Please model this.
Amino acid sequence: MSPSEKYVASLCRKSFLPFWNFPNPIGKKKKELCDVLVVCGNYILIISVKDIQVSNHIDENIQYDRWVKKAVEDSAKQIYGAERFLKNTDDLFARNRKNKIPLPPKANRIVLRIAIAFGSKNTFPLPFGDFGQGFIHVFDEESTAILLNELDTITDFTEYLVNKEQFLKGKYFSMPKESDFLAFYFQTGLDIEEEVDSFVSDGTLWHSYIKLRQYKNWKKILPQSYIWDFMITHLYEYHITKETSDKRRYELEEAVRVISQESRNHRIELGGILDNAIQRKSLARMLKPLNDATHCYVFMPLTSKNWDGKEKELELRCVVARMENPSVEKVIGIGFGNNGNGQDFYDICYLYIPEMSQDFIDHAKEVQEELGYFKKPTISHSETYRKEDFKGFGL
Model:
């Protein structure tokens, strides 16, 4: 991998976790498909990275045309070729040529195309749009770093790309920098009352935006969400990478996938509730599903009293929580505490029950009655942080 490819892959790994992020997967004729492939749910992100130095021709127009051809148009060809290959396969090999990358069902796939063009020193305006076979987002070094740091969850990033594609249909937008469109997106949510056919930016919109009080306030409340990020990293590194049972590993991965798809807004709310539960060291609590989600959470403190049986208790509490939340399909149980060596410790339970049988309900009621789990539940929910509150200065 080139330095620029490694840089992009590391940013993607930070935001999208190893089991969604695949550098240099293998495609047609056992050759590299693209520089980075991200697969999450029904989304497939095809990313091509080119690092092309600007020629030393005296005519700047010729410099620009040559650079665009090699840095952007050649990426577009690679992306379209990768997409054609993926249309005819259900899986493909990772870079090691051993592990398979399963793809979502063909009928459900949402393909997002990204060309990352390095080498212009961020001085050239970037073309974007349909290069012949579908919309391609084009980023440079600066915009790549800003986007993957500001939209650092898979949900926020894909939502941005999809909304941008839909919004730009039939419109003329001249924006030298992708970060300017991001500022426009944050400030308006792309919810504009009047019909706008064109928009022109002078390249300073992002730098003006980050000076606003609203943006600074957004940055102040972000740390509340980082406990959620810390928990995800701990669960992945401590449990999934060390798990030897295929069945248990699958369950853990499914659980971590769910909690990793929470948006940054949700992580602020969830992080606040989790932090409150940790600080108060209260009894286990249920968290009602957020925004009609198909999953809910159980938070349970881990202490010396329940340490030996923590997995079973967390599982049974999830069973009762599923009964108490008939609208959901999944319950994610999160145990938190100290491992006795001064280190924070998180445990996790994944329960997938699409439909409750009468036997399951009877079992849940029996657990609730005999063990007292959530008989008089502490139910956490918060209306302090809502998406509309962030409009204009965040996600």
The mean pLDDT is 86. The two ends are 32 Å apart (CA to CA). The chain is about 45% helix and 20% strand. The first strand starts at residue 21 and ends at 23.
